[in-house]
Fold this protein.
Amino acid sequence: MSPARRGTGRRVLDYGLTVALFALLALVATRLDRLGTRSEQGRATVNDGDTVTLGRERVRLRGIDAPEYTQTCRRDGTGYACGRQARQALVDLIGGRPVTCTGWQRDRYGRLLGDCRAGDVDLNAALVASGWAVAYGGYQAEEAKARAAKAGLWAGSFDRPQDWRRLHGRPDEARHDALGSVVDGFRALFRPR
């Protein structure tokens, strides 16, 4: 290969890598909002078993998945409104107290994915521990205890909420994107223990 051809090929490669690098930087820049932690607090309106509204901010409780409001489950051979009971369980856990939610990521519906508390109660963990939500990327120990105790949903049979949504033509609203998962991983590495 002649030196002139090698130089042209090298320049094309350099330009291609430069364009790729700028594209990657642009993508990261559009996602920087995910690196900043937001904290919302106030009186909560409970939308369903894993979503609250604080002021104008809708917050999806991170790491859990509760039955959809219209979802039914079975216990003792009879169907019951487990979605409504999951919502009521969250209302009861909040107990009229102010709620504080902290998060850095949004789901595809624009809701803040948050870790929420009412007083000293970790709402995410408490919902899974009481059996009214399943683990979805977190809280596996709480789910195992609820399952062993046959608490909440585990007292009967049910479709996992993500499966129920799929069966009923609804998208998986608990899913979050791959870049958010990478950011979650990095944040977990540097989170104080």
